[in-house]
Structure formats: C-alpha cells, structure tokens
Amino acid sequence: MNRNPSKRYVAAAKVADLAQAHSVAAATEILKKMPSAKFDETVEISACLGVDPKQSDQMVRGTVSLPNGSGKKIRVIVFTENPKQALDAGADAAGLNDLIDKVLGGWMDFDVAVSTTPAMKDVRKVARVLGPRGLMPNPKSGTVSDDIPRTIAEVKAGRVEFKMDKTANVVIVVGKKSFAADKLAQNVEAALGALAKSQPAGFVGPRFVKSVTLSSTMSPGVRIDLRAVVAPAA
C-alpha cells in the first residue's frame, strides 16, 4: 500500500473505479488516461497465482513474444563456440571461456544470456552468478538454443521471460506507457495467453490465476477481468 501517495498517484486513482475489474481494452484505456511521469514508464501485468510455490512440480515460468515489442532495447550475450555467428546476428557480446571469465569477474552489462546446447557444460560455471539474477540460460525459457540467429532475433524483437516468485506472484512486462492503447492491449492479451499456457500439468486447485492487475511504473493497478485469461486447451 502506498502510505504517502503523490498528487499524480491520487489523480490517477480517480480516473476510473479501480475496485472493479475491467476488460483488457478498457484497462489499457484507463491506464493511458492516468497522469504520466516525466519518463516513459514501463507497463506490466501482475498476477497472483493459485499454485503452491513450495511444490517443485508447480513452478511457473515461460516466455511471450510481444506482438508490439517491449519498448526496451534488449542487450543479449551468447555463450557459444562460434562467436562470429552470434555477433553477426546482432548479439551484443559473444564467446565462451572468455565471456564466462568476464561474467565471473563481475561484468553484468546485459539483459538476456543465451547459450548453445554444447556450451552449457561450460556455462554451468556461472550458474551461481546468473541463477540468482534470473539470467541463467534455460531450455524452458528458450535461452538454450541451437538456432542462435533466430533466438537473438526473437529476444530483441520483444520476447519476454517470466517466472513465478516465492509468493506465487508473476510480473510480466508488456510495453511502455507511450504505446498506443490498442498496441498495449495486444501485448497484454499475448502475455495473458502465455501465462494461461504455463499452468502446471499437475495443478488441481480451483483457480490457476486468482487476480491480474495492469499498471505502469508510477500508477496504481487496474484490475483485469479474469475472463480475459484464457485457459489452455485440454
């Protein structure tokens, strides 16, 4: 709870009835009408899940390719035996043992780390550094790949990773406040679809997604109607 809300926050909270749930289209329109900060705020959806985070078979993680991008320039490094191929494909840095040593030395000037499958046996050396930061290459998040050019292109075009935290909450970046409302709505729909598909096979609770809100960096949350979260096909 914001105990000392700013004037902007208070004004934003008056734009619509925030106690009510809204469709994705309505939620993005409401967010766009809220007063903006002096910088281009990041927009996210925050979901509270009904899984048990203590159960390893109920871990939730995945990726979503945002149709309109995330609005952020993504810095990608690639652990590979063929750094020239990765650099030619747009990687910001590439290599294997030299790149591993650089990361172990404290260099973290990147947003996503990708690895080829053969390189993973060496990349495990940086697991203790990248793991806690959520940056360790992982097949489930699509960052271990044998098609490095395609993976780099997808990541830089707007592929966003998400992972449930220890309190069963998930945050997914869906764009910037400067995006048009319809573009934001398309990204939100894609993120909600990816979240629904990430439901663990063994989940038996009454509701996988308990609540979803849309917000920007400096705004209050706008509740999204849970009917927008489409369950995966049986």
Structure write-up:
By secondary structure, this protein is α/β, with parallel strands linked by helices. It is 28% helix and 20% strand. It is built from 8 helices and 9 strands. The chain has a 4-stranded antiparallel sheet with strand order 7-1-8-9, covered by helices on one side. A 3-stranded parallel sheet has the order 4-3-5, sandwiched between helices. It is globular. The termini are far apart. 37% of the residues are buried. The model has no long low-confidence stretch (mean pLDDT 91).
Specify the biggest β-sheet. 4 strands, antiparallel
Distance between the termini: 38 Å
Beta-strand content: 15-25%
**Shape estimate:** globular
The percent range for helix content is: 25-40%
Counted beta strands: 9
Order of helices and strands: HHEEEHEHEHHHEEHEE
* Poorly predicted parts: none
Radius of gyration: 19 Å
Structure summary:
The protein has helices at residues 7-13, 24-33, 83-88, 97-104, 120-123, 127-130, 148-157, 181-197, and strands at 42-49, 61-65, 76-79, 93-95, 112-115, 159-163, 169-176, 209-216, 222-223.
Secondary structure topology:
Layout: H1 7-13, H2 24-33, E1 42-49, E2 61-65, E3 76-79, H3 83-88, E4 93-95, H4 97-104, E5 112-115, H5 120-123, H6 127-130, H7 148-157, E6 159-163, E7 169-176, H8 181-197, E8 209-216, E9 222-223
Parallel strand pairs: 3-4, 3-5
Antiparallel strand pairs: 1-7, 1-8, 2-6, 8-9
Helix pairs in contact: 2-8
